[in-house]
Design brief:
It contains five helices and ten strands, in the order ββββαααβαββββαβ. By secondary structure, it is α+β, with helices and mostly antiparallel strands. The protein has a single domain, classed as Cathepsin B, Chain A (Alpha-Beta Complex), CATH 3.90.70.10. The strands form two sheets. Strands 3, 4, 5, 6, 7, 8, 9 and 10 form an eight-stranded mixed sheet that branches. A two-stranded antiparallel sheet has the order 1-2. Helix 1 crosses helix 2 and helix 1 runs parallel beside helix 3. The longest helix is centred in the last third of the chain and has 16 residues. It starts with 7 loop residues before the first strand and ends with a strand. The N terminus is likely disordered.
Amino acid sequence: MNPIVQKTGLSALGLLVAGSCIAGPALSAQAAPVSSTPVASVHTDKGDKGGKNDRADKNGRANKDGRADKDGRRDKRAERMVGVEYQAQPNFYFCGPAATRIALSAQGKALPQDRVAELLGTTEAGTDSALDITRVLNELTGAGYETTEIRDSVARPDQVDQLRTDLLDALEDGRPVVANIKGTAVDTDGNPHSYEGGHYLTLVGYRDGGDLVRVADPAAPEGEYWMTLEKVANWIAERGYSS
């Protein structure tokens, strides 16, 4: 199979945030739901949001978000899952609409994938960029999604930490994160997931303070799987995510 044509979008900061999707066999859009248990701005190096997840308790330990306490130990107790309605993508280029639709379902906005695709401007060449995902999520939910770019080819430690912060903050507010990824990554069960032409998927939960991330993948036969945060960040490298 030939790779699909890449369409791209140029962000306000000048970094290419490439979209696209996988090339592969069509998947059923009406796959049985796999439930998790329960306008666009662009930035690269965001400061501390100072939200409720960032406040330390009286003993100096960070609450809920798994950051290190005053002794440098990470709290591994924190975990969260956001309930979503999973749907597989119906064809090789609807990963953007499917991943966005999964995120929207967490807030009761379960639109048909065809309608989401129309709003995103998706064609057989895919969905242009994470900027389009952010725009549509905000148009439909008013939730204040932002696009974050990982500029490097391999995510730096600070970019991994930023993804952790953004993911935990978004999920605390009940907002799944939509990631634009490319390449191959291996989940915690040892299964490789390869999308050399680019792909969109949804991050719907975490455990171990964010060290492990629950991925709802509209092209994966198993629907959802766990992957380490670092692998997810490197998957997003040179692209972006909406949180």
